[in-house]
Amino acid sequence: MLIAGGSQSRELAKKVARHLEAKVIDVMCSKFPDGEIYVRVFGEVGGEGVALLQSLARSPNDNLVELLLAADALRGAGCRDLIGVIPYMAYARQDARFNPGEPLSIGVVAKLLSNAGFSRLLTVDMHLHRVKNAADLFSIPIVNLTAAKLIADFFRKRYPDESFIVVGPDEESEQWASKVARELGADYVIFTKERAGPSEVRLKAIGEVKLDGKTALVVDDIISTGGTMAEAARKALSAGAEKVFAACVHPVLVGQAYQTISSAGAELVVGTDSVESPISKISIAPLLAGALRLYL
Ligand code: R5P
After folding, report:
1. Which of 32, 35, 193, 289 lies 20 to 30 Å from 246 when distance is taken between CA atoms?
2. Residue 216 banded pLDDT, cuts 50, 70, 90
3. What are the pocket residues of ligand 1 if the criterion is a CB atom closer than 6 Å to any ligand atom?
């Protein structure tokens, strides 16, 4: 089995390869002066099963094209089986035509990925809300793994004496907040969210929420601008929480996201390495390695 890491997931690819005692192959990616992407795969892949890792955060369009080109390069070089590992799936939040004239963006991305030469896809905590099952979008098998247990393990080991209550900042986050709470053996509360602008959100509690003396662990799938987490941190503190920790699966971290959340009072902001970032303290490598053992 060979592990190939695209430009967004090179470190993660090395970690997964270590877990599997597999060889890493290099995927070189650069840009032509006009912005087109050039990809070249190095190493012997003929007859081998290959897992190609590439996260689609931050420059999603370039990262997606790089992934499609790398898949074609590996197929062209004669690999036997090709699994696409997409730790962060871009465009999943546009999972409906919210207004007349809009595309179903995740449907378009799913079509591209389903026809790119992969035999199967793995992803992690894909933003599924209106579409409940990733398999409904793709015409090849896709497995949506969850990092909830890894997030809970991180907090349990690092803060064994903390009295946690898990907070989901909006209705969509309940699926992640509830899983982390279950793993921690803690209760959870969910706020509701109204967007006042691209990075401005208002949260409301459903019913009376009292967090007196508790450590609020705010859990969401994505931190983008940090507006949602920051507002949740402020709400948790004003509901009596003693301190606030913020955790996400995908630290996309646009602009000043980290500072926005810290200055709202969160003592700690962490995410996984589904998106490589300075706060990626929780590795999903064991989760991916476990799944690849089953499929490659
Ligand atoms: C959207 O519903 C997601 O689950 C996140 O809550 C959202 O992407 C976070 O965005 P931001 O960090 O910009 O508030």
Report:
1. 289
2. very high
3. 93, 127, 170, 172-173, 199, 201, 220-228
Q: Tell me how far the alpha carbon of residue 226 lies from the centroid of ligand 1, in angstroms.
A: 7
Known catalytic membership, residue 132: no
Q: Which of 23, 31, 157, 193 is catalytic?
A: 193
Q: Which atom of ligand 1 is nearest to the CA of 257?
A: 12
Q: Would you say 198 and 228 are in contact if contact means Cβ atoms under 8 Å apart?
A: no
pLDDT in tens, 112-136: 999 999 999 999 999 988 998 999 9
Please answer whether residues 13 and 5 qualify as being in contact, where contact means their C-beta atoms are separated by less than 8 angstroms: yes
Kindly state the average pLDDT of the residues 207-226: 91
DSSP per-residue string spanning 193-225: EEEEETTEEEEEESS----TT-EEEEEEEEESS
pLDDT at 199: 63
Q: For a pocket test of ligand 1, which of 170, 228, 258, 275 has the largest count of ligand atoms closer than 8 A to its C-beta? A: 228
pLDDT in tens, 155-170: 999 999 999 999 999 9
For residue 261, report the distance from its CA to the centre of ligand 1, in Å: 13
Task: Give the Å distances, CA to CA, from 24 to 8, 53, 84, 126.
Answer: 15, 11, 15, 25
Neighbour tally for 57: CB within 10 Å? 23
Q: Calculate the dihedral angle through the C-alpha atoms of 56, 142, 190, 194, rounding to the nearest 10 degrees.
A: 50
Average pLDDT of 222-231? 96
